[in-house]
Specification:
Radius of gyration: 27 Å
Structural class: alpha/beta
Number of domains: 2
Shape: elongated
Number of helices: 7
Distance between the termini: 15 Å
CATH superfamily of the largest domain: Ribosomal protein L4/L1
Helix content: 25-40%
């Protein structure tokens, strides 16, 4: 498919052919769901932990004698039914990581890119470069590109080449709703969570080479 290339001032500077096998595939919501769940599961630290009866600090003495008190029999004040006692069946330290075939992961990336292309929310720019670190100037350029709505809010993911321009990254760092990633960091979750996807020409070529 043919796609226009613009600069950060929203001026047309050319066009490029985007591969239909990457940017024009059938969108599979089930595949997108599997990939997003896999990503979020792998991000979890799994360090949640509660103490069992054997780990709670306290006495090991029997609270009172077994019989003759009229109370239920008890063997420890560290038992789960007492205040300050252990937790029964609580969370333990574990890995939440899941396995997902590489074929499914690649298919998920194709689907995510195709979603943005079909919705008309894919923008290809020549480069992501700023002459100086100036958030106000970048906001002005984003307004020209139509990335800021009438409420003054924006939601966009910028994906550059192998190396990001430091001035651009620092200028975008304080803008709410804006993410900036290198081409190798492109992923399904970040593409879907932002309204508009902005790719550099280099990033588009890198993604095509990676996903064809």
């Amino acid at each position: 498919m043919k796609h226009d290339i613009v600069n950060l001032d929203n001026q047309n500077v050319g066009s490029m052919d985007l591969a239909d096998s990457v940017f024009g595939v059938e969108v599979r919501e089930d595949i997108l769901s599997r990939v997003v769940n896999w990503q979020l599961a792998n991000r979890r630290a799994g360090t949640h932990k509660t103490k069992t009866i054997s780990e709670v600090s306290g006495t090991t003495k029997k609270p009172y004698k077994q019989k003759g008190t009229g109370n239920a029999r008890q063997g420890s004040l560290r038992a789960t039914q007492f205040r300050g006692g252990g937790i029964c069946f609580g969370p333990v330290v574990r890995s939440h990581a899941q396995d997902l075939p590489k074929k499914i992961r690649r298919m998920g990336m194709r689907c995510a890119l195709s979603v943005k292309a079909k919705e008309g929310k894919l923008v290809v720019v020549d480069a992501l470069k700023m002459p100086e670190v100036k958030t106000k100037d970048l906001l002005s350029k984003m307004d020209k590109m139509g990335l800021i709505n009438e409420k003054g809010l924006t939601s966009a993911l910028f994906i550059g080449g192998a190396e990001l321009d430091n001035n651009f990254s620092l200028s975008a760092r304080n803008i709410v709703g804006i993410d900036v990633l290198p081409a190798q960091g492109a992923n399904v979750y970040d593409i879907l969570r932002r309204d508009t996807l902005v790719l550099t020409k280099e990033a588009a070529e890198n993604l095509e080479a990676r996903l064809k």
